């Protein structure tokens, strides 16, 4: 990945982080982490849909498994062979069992040339009360660039 691409990606991620932080004011306490793995596929220029296996590890209670699907709308060119995304999960209160099930929407920025990085900042879930903030940028392999809106469905 060249320097211009890296700087552009960093700028987009910073902008999206500010937007998501403002929209998640009600979600103030970290209640666990969500790790999703999978996401192999091909970007279809104006978007893509990729499937993931996810595990929510709450700060209290047993881990919970979810099936996830990320739909990207916007520029999405290339392919990815594997993706791991880790989010910190924030909510105003402790979440009941299976509370992460639902739809999330937010900003997306990814780039990879061999090994790459990206981020997805999302809000949704039970009564739109859950915020997923990148705990670390996602790791992915492939040849891909994507910027736009991401929708995550957990079930």
Q: What's this model, at a glance?
A:
With 155 residues, the chain is mainly β.
Structure notes:
- It is built from one helix and five strands; from the N terminus they run H-E-E-E-E-E.
- The protein is mainly beta.
- The protein has one domain (3-154).
- Strands 1, 2, 3, 4 and 5 form a five-stranded antiparallel β-sheet that branches.
Walk me through the topology.
Elements: H1 3-23, E1 29-38, E2 41-58, E3 64-91, E4 102-124, E5 130-154
Antiparallel strand pairs: 1-2, 1-3, 2-3, 3-5, 4-5
What attributes does this structure have?
disordered N terminus, 5 strands, 155 residues, 1 helix, mainly beta, five-stranded antiparallel β-sheet
Order of helices and strands: HEEEEE
| DSSP helical segment count | 1
Low-confidence stretches: 1-27
Number of strands: 5
Categorize the overall geometry.
elongated
By helix and strand content, what is the structural category? mainly beta
What count of domains describes the coordinates?
A: 1
Q: Sheet bearing the most strands, described?
A: 5 strands, antiparallel
Beta-strand residue percentage: over 45%
Distance between the termini: 34 Å
Computed Rg: 15 Å
Helix content: 10-25%
Oligomer: single chain
Mean pLDDT: 74
């Amino acid at each position: 990945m060249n320097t211009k691409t890296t700087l552009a990606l960093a700028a987009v991620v910073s902008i999206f982080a500010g937007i998501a932080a403002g929209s998640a004011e009600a979600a103030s306490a970290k209640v666990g982490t969500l790790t999703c793995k999978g996401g192999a596929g091909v970007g279809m220029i104006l978007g893509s849909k990729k499937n993931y296996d996810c595990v929510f590890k709450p700060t209290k209670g047993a881990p919970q498994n979810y099936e996830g699907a990320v739909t990207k709308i916007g520029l999405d060119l290339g392919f990815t062979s594997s993706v791991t995304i880790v989010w910190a999960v924030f909510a105003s209160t402790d979440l009941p069992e299976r509370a992460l099930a639902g739809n999330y929407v937010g900003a997306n920025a990814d780039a990879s040339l061999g090994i790459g990085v990206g981020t997805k900042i999302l809000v949704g879930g039970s009564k739109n009360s859950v915020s997923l903030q990148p705990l670390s940028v996602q790791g992915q392999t492939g040849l891909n660039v994507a910027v736009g809106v991401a929708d995550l469905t957990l079930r």
